[in-house]
Amino acid sequence: MEMLTIGAFAKASRLSPKALRLYDELELLRPARVDPETGYRYYAPEQLEQARLVAWLRRLGMPLAGIREVRALAPAAAAREIRAFWARTESETATRRDLAAFLVDHLSRTVPGNPGTPGDPGNPSKDTAMLELRYSALSDTGRVRPANQDTAYAGTRVLAVADGFGSGGAPASSAAVEALKFLDSEPLPAGSVLNLLEDAVQGATQAVQEVAGPTAEIGTTLTAMVWTGSQLALVHIGDSRAYLLRDGGLFRITHDHTMVQSMLDEGRLTPEEATAHPQRALLLKALTGSGPAPDLDVRLHDALVGDRYLLCSDGLSAVVPEATIRDTLAAAPGPDEAAQALVGAANDSGGPDNVSCVVADLVNTESQ
Questions:
Q1: Torsion angle, CA of 276/355/238/136, rounded to 10 degrees?
Q2: Other Cβ atoms closer than 10 A to 359
């Protein structure tokens, strides 16, 4: 068999000799033969495909340990693992992007002498002062469940939906939402609202634990938004959801903390398979009766006049297609009508679960 020298192989594979020596040491790409006297490395032509795969995966940013695992898999399994790696990368990148945007915004507003911009909490303008939320909250037992364990709330600044579970699900969801209501009482600058919101969720966790007592199976989801006057601060845990209707498009702005969602993220399920998965309601995160508060999704969300927000329990999102949710939100003249139509749509689809909706519009009162 004709062998390629390390120089020829490096040129053909577009990897440097230095990289090839490193990959040999790490057992990622061993040469076909090593001269026992000179230690010179030789490679077989059929190793070029392996070398190119290693190079591509490195360019993708995959760690060396991950590359070693992928190389040991059959092509179909390797493809699934690469898809799962990239899904995790995109999720992590989105989280870092949101954090970077918040830090840039927060630090820009606190620079001495920075006059700010219209709508900026650091420089309240006439436009900002005239913005407010118009809202409606509605919760319904549905067609099947004997009692309602959801809680929905909408106030001047606080919007919240919680979906309780277990024998004390109703008081757990109510306690979680009650712990946030104090944020309704005073103006909240965007620069500190995330800290206040995290403190409030710590209080919500304690409230749920007091309700649950020693029963760890009791708990609740929580999806809430707090209006600062120019932005909305979002906190989320579980599988209740928040959506944004903007310019006719519907965008989901929360990520489900469920087993099925994690399998979707990793490429192990298709969206079609997820809808019929027997564990689609299995939560990975929630506010429960035991342990410390889990990591939550907390971030600031830029808001525009004309935006319509929907917070809902899975009693809506699990049975009503997103296209129907979009069309219903777009067609309703106001939050009251939208909430009633969405709850009606869930019940028309069988109402297998409690269903709760909070709908809020961002309006400029000066133009009203």
A1: 140
A2: 30
| The residue count for the chain | 368
Distances (CA, A) of 230 to 71, 127, 339, 362: 50, 10, 24, 10
Q: Is 352 helix (H, G, I), strand (E, B) or coil?
A: coil
Specify whether the CB–CB gap between 85 and 267 falls below 8 A: no
Q: Which residue's structure tokens are 């059929």?
A: 46
- What the block records as the tokens of 206 is 């304690």
pLDDT for 107 equals 60
d(CA 188, CA 227): 8
> pLDDT below 70 — which residues of the chain?
1, 91-92, 94-129, 189-191, 214-216, 269, 272, 278, 291-294, 367-368
3-state secondary structure of 252: strand
pLDDT for the residue numbered 91: 67
Give the residue carrying structure tokens 């992007």: 97
The pLDDT score that the predictor gives to residue 61 is 84
Round to whole Å and give the CA distance between 181 and 301. Answer: 20
Q: What is the DSSP letter of 217?
A: T
pLDDT at residue 123, rounded to an integer: 40
Residues forming beta bridges with residue 242, ordered by sequence position: 311
Say which residue the tokens 């509605």 belong to. Answer: 138
Alpha-carbon gap, residue 15 to 89, rounded angstroms: 24
What per-residue confidence (pLDDT) applies to 84? Answer: 85
